[in-house]
Specification:
By secondary structure, the chain is of the alpha/beta class. The protein contains 12 helices and 14 strands. The strands form 3 sheets. A 10-stranded mixed beta sheet has the order 3-4-5-6-9-10-11-12-13-14, sandwiched between helices. The structure holds S-adenosyl-L-homocysteine. The site of S-adenosyl-L-homocysteine has 18 residues, from strand 10 and strand 12.
Length: 341
């Protein structure tokens, strides 16, 4: 099988060149073609000899992803893509326009194993991890197709990023590398349902990214009911890992809390949340729950605002996430599911 050249870091690509009997510096030229000029064919690498281009063609492939559907919101310029991968699987990305720039939400896996019971991405189960190139291509393709510059990236699409740890780390390194997108990881958020071991591992990299924790409940009983991962890593162990992360990276954590009426949105829940997060350097993102077919979950406006007010009163910093792209089912996993059914 041909090797995925777009998933190779510069060092790796330079070593590959030596292995096939070429000069090391060719690696840098090729890397620039792939990640700065973002060409799709070896034939287009005009400063590379035709003999080497033939060798490249024989040994490597330039991965690609194809847009199969593009939905544009009439309300707020949100754009959602359904992509087909080279093996026929499907993933989604969403571009959202904010005052501070364009933000892209990308997928990290095809499907998800985590089984959160409010989430559309996990219902049909897990197929496979995405490669670094498939994550980079979501960025490159969104910029090419819209002509817009992507200013920030959130790993909040389909999949659990920390369950695809090595590929996600490689993606982050390549995304922030000076040749290529060159995006500071300060402009990246990574969201996890709480894979505690991996949070400790991630802290060691001391990236500047924002770690978002999908908390969604304040007691183990309730959290385990809606998020099976809590049976493996309970709230106590999760918060310990968060504190370690903050100590090691100096970054504050963002906690996501999907406000579900009748499940976790009472003022008592808010009080429990205040107790739980007291003393942790964090921000709370309240998410009005997106409806999925399998559940009757909904957010109640009054309870949502009362919940936020209670948190603020308790000294926590809480904002309500703006709902974007509501006319195009922009929440993660919704389009892929519809397409694959
Ligand atoms: N697997 C990662 C990232 C993907 S989901 C994680 O669990 O964090 C991104 C965010 O959307 C998570 O906070 C997730 O819990 C939340 N989410 C999923 N389905 C949702 C829904 N129907 N309504 C509101 N938030 C949802």
């Amino acid at each position: 099988m041909k090797k995925d050249i777009l998933s190779m870091e510069l060092d790796e690509l330079c070593s590959e060149m030596e292995i096939i009997g070429e000069k090391k510096f060719r690696g840098k030229q090729i890397y620039e073609w792939l990640h700065t000029k973002r060409i799709h064919k070896f034939e287009d690498m005009s400063n590379i000899s035709s003999a080497l281009r033939t060798k490249l063609n024989e040994n490597y492939c330039i991965n690609s992803i194809n847009i199969v559907r593009k939905l544009e919101s009439a309300i707020d310029n949100t754009v959602k893509y359904l992509y087909e991968l080279s093996d026929g699987n499907h993933i989604e990305s969403v571009i959202m326009e904010y005052k501070h720039g364009n933000s892209l939400c990308i997928s990290t896996q095809v499907g998800c194993k985590m089984g959160c019971n409010f989430c559309a991405s996990t219902i049909a189960g897990f197929k496979r991890h995405l490669t670094p190139s498939e994550m980079l291509l979501q960025v490159y393709e969104a910029e090419r197709n819209t002509g817009k510059h992507i200013d920030s990236i959130v790993l909040m699409g389909i999949g659990e990023p920390l369950d695809n740890f090595d590929n996600v780390i490689k993606f982050l390194k390549m995304l922030s590398f000076e040749i290529g997108k060159n995006l500071s990881l300060r402009h990246v958020s990574l969201s996890t349902c709480g894979l505690v071991d991996k949070i400790y591992e991630l802290a060691e990299y001391k990236f500047g990214l924002t770690l978002s924790i999908s908390l969604h409940a304040t007691t183990d009983k309730k959290r385990s009911e809606i998020m099976p991962i809590n049976k493996r890593y309970n709230i106590d162990s999760l918060l310990k890992a968060c504190k370690d992360y903050i100590n090691k990276t100096g970054r504050r954590i963002s906690f996501e809390y999907a406000v579900i009426h009748g499940v976790n949105d009472t003022v008592t829940d808010a009080d429990e949340l205040i107790k739980l997060l007291r003393g942790i350097n964090c921000h709370i993102n309240l998410i009005p729950v997106n409806k999925i077919k399998e559940r009757n979950y909904r957010s109640d406006r009054n309870s949502l605002f009362a919940f936020q007010a209670a948190l603020e009163k308790g000294g926590l910093n809480a904002t309500i996430r703006r709902t974007l792209g509501s006319d195009i089912d922009a929440a993660c996993g919704q389009l892929r599911r519809e397409y694959e059914l």
